[in-house]
């Protein structure tokens, strides 16, 4: 009996201890929730009752030097069906009404509808790129088309389609991987980001900032009140140095070429007035939600490589390189300004006889006449006499073997100019010490073949230095104060001004009575032009390349043109020179 009474007396104690323990645990949990994790749970609570309706920013425009729009943004209107609100019987009625109202084939509507159901989509796009008239007609009848609506989306628009495509560049939605790192900068899923060209280089300025409205909702998700609106911030406009009139001519002169490039530049400060590359591509392709497989393959898998910017990639320069060899001979002191050399049908170096392009020779001539007639054997002798490293050193001073400084450097190739150390190290493909320099190399190098590969933009810089009296300029696409670029982007090169003047005189003779004389055909009132033709064997085994470089006026030059026709046999004077002539004509008319 006593034992039972003792057991009953312990029950309140057990209950008390259990209750105390439970209360203590609850207290600990409250401390954890209210004090230690207050901010975390407050944020979760706010997210449950607060919604953000994001507002997409308008991307900044890209404009030419005169304010002509090269890239902007526009709204794309799409007809959307939400199948959860429309049954099969209703769809058959709607399909006929939509077809008549918006003049869209019923077969197309049915195909889009069936594909959407097959892929279990909650929102089916029936038709893209609605016109304003179609939008208005729909809005007037939307009350009888339940479950169908207009979707509005901001897309990038390029009014001139293929014009200046390589330098303008394009945008694409960011990837999931990119979003993980860019979300902290304000990017959203499926936000646009510049991929190439100006769109890529000036992404931070041009993209703008997202805005939106913060609203409060109840437990059912119904709107209660607005908590504030933050307007989206438009991106900054980018003003280019490009002149659309010259750009259109540059694109036109490339139309009948297999491939090539045109660069038009102000040799005083490096401002690019036009830059075209062929083949080109339609920038608006990247703004499409649906990209047809055929168009995709033509762009990304084509052997013609339309995305490849030929203005910034390297090729054999041929005779336009002879100005470098000339300056190397003059600067070395071995072949001073008064040098006269006998030209011949061919000259043997190593095991090969390197020919004169007329197979006869031009008699005994000096630098200016050698440039005028583009003598090969004259420059073979200069190059062999000074050696590979003298040519290499002068080329470095003129901006070769390095990036030009142009903003779109992600597309640029530094090219190749051979040197003795390059040969000793294996020429980029062999073992050190196993690929020595041979006599044939210097002959090829002297006239810009095989062991020399340079880009049209590098040629533009080098010739600009001759045109402006010895300043290496930085090519640029973004419009800025010219004086700022004159002060910060011009560099005096370590080459005797008298030697530059001698070469410049030779380039003037090329146009007056040499290989470039036809530049004046059919052109009236054109200021004096200086230039150089070039025909280059393709080191990769294709047909010859055609080059022509010129600047005008000859004395105080304002415009420089590089015309390059890839794998277009027949000579620079036949194919590249006429391209440059059209640029000069257009420029001269607008002066």
Can you walk me through this structure?
The chain has 591 residues and is an alpha+beta fold. It folds into three domains: 48-78 and 152-240, Penicillin-binding protein 2a (Domain 2); 83-146, no CATH class; 244-289 and 309-589, 3-Layer(aba) Sandwich (Beta-lactamase), CATH 3.40.710. It is 39% helix and 20% strand. The protein has 21 helices and 23 strands. Helix 10 (244-253) packs antiparallel against helix 21 (572-589), helix 13 packs parallel to helix 20 and helix 14 packs across helix 17 (439-446).
Brief write-up:
By secondary structure, this protein is α+β, with helices and mostly antiparallel strands. The chain is built from 21 helices and 23 strands.
Distance between the termini: 124 Å
What is the strand tally? 23
The biggest sheet, with number of strands, parallel, antiparallel or mixed sense and barrel status, is: 5 strands, mixed
The parts where pLDDT drops under 50 for at least 5 residues are 481-486
CATH class of the largest domain: Alpha Beta
Helix content: 25-40%
Q: The CATH topology of the largest domain is what? A: Beta-lactamase
Do you know the CATH architecture of the largest domain?
3-Layer(aba) Sandwich
Shape by Cα distribution: elongated
| Average pLDDT number | 89
What structural class should be given to the helix and strand makeup?
Answer: alpha+beta
| CATH 4th-level superfamily of the largest domain | DD-peptidase/beta-lactamase superfamily
Estimate what percentage of residues fall within beta strands: 15-25%
Number of domains: 3
Compute the CA-based radius of gyration: 35 Å
Q: Counting H and I runs of at least 4 residues, what is the number of helices?
A: 21
């Amino acid at each position: 009996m006593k034992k039972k009474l003792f057991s009953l007396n312990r029950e309140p104690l057990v209950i008390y201890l259990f209750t105390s323990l439970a209360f203590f645990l609850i207290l600990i949990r409250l401390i954890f929730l209210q004090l230690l994790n207050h901010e975390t749970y407050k944020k979760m609570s706010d997210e449950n009752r607060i919604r953000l309706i994001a507002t997409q920013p308008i991307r900044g425009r890209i404009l030419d030097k005169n304010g002509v729009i090269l890239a902007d943004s526009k709204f794309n209107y799409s007809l959307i069906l939400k199948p959860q609100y429309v049954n099969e019987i209703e769809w058959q009625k709607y399909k006929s009404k939509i077809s008549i109202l918006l003049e869209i084939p019923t077969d197309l509507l049915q195909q889009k509808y069936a594909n959407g159901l097959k892929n279990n989509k909650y929102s089916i796009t029936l038709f893209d790129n609605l016109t304003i008239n179609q939008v208005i007609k729909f809005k007037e009848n939307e009350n009888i088309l339940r479950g169908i609506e207009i979707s509005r989306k901001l897309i990038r628009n390029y009014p001139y389609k293929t014009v200046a495509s390589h330098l303008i560049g394009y945008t694409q939605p960011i990837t999931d991987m990119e979003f993980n790192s860019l979300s902290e900068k304000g990017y959203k899923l499926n936000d646009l980001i510049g991929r190439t060209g100006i769109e890529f280089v000036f992404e931070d300025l041009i993209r703008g900032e997202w805005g939106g409205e913060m609203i409060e909702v109840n437990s059912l998700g119904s709107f209660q009140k607005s908590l504030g609106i933050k307007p989206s911030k438009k991106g900054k406009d980018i003003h280019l140095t490009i002149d659309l009139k010259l750009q259109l001519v540059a694109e036109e002169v490339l139309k009948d070429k297999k491939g090539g490039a045109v660069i038009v530049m102000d040799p005083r400060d490096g401002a690019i007035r036009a830059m075209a590359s062929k083949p080109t591509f339609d920038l608006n392709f990247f703004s499409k939600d649906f990209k047809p497989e055929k168009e995709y393959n033509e762009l990304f898998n084509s052997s013609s490589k339309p995305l490849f910017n030929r203005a910034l990639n390297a090729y054999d320069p041929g005779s336009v390189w002879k100005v470098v060899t000339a300056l190397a001979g003059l600067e070395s002191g071995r072949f001073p300004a008064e040098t006269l050399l006998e030209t011949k049908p061919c000259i043997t170096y190593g095991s090969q006889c390197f020919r004169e392009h007329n197979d006869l020779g031009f008699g005994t001539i000096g630098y200016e006449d050698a440039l005028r007639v583009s003598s090969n054997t004259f420059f073979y002798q200069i190059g062999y006499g000074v050696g590979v490293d003298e040519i290499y050193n002068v080329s470095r001073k003129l901006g070769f073997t390095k990036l030009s400084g142009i903003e779109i450097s992600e597309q640029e190739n530094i090219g190749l100019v051979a040197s003795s150390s390059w040969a000793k190290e294996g020429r980029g493909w062999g073992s050190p010490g196993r690929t020595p320099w041979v006599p044939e190399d210097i002959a090829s190098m002297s006239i810009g073949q095989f062991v020399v590969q340079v880009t049209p933009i590098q040629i533009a810089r080098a010739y600009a230095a001759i045109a402006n009296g010895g300043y290496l300029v930085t090519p640029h696409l973004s419009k800025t104060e010219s004086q700022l670029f004159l002060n910060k982007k011009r560099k005096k090169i370590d080459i005797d001004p008298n030697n530059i003047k001698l070469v410049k005189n030779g380039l003037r003779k090329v146009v007056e009575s040499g290989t470039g004389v036809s530049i004046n055909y059919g052109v009236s009132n054109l200021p004096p032009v200086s230039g150089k033709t070039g025909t280059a064997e393709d080191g990769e085994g294709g047909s010859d390349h055609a080059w022509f470089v010129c600047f005008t006026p000859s004395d105080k030059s304002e415009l420089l043109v590089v015309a390059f026709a890839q794998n277009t046999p027949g000579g620079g004077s036949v194919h590249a020179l006429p391209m440059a002539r059209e640029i000069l004509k257009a420029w001269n008319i607008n002066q």
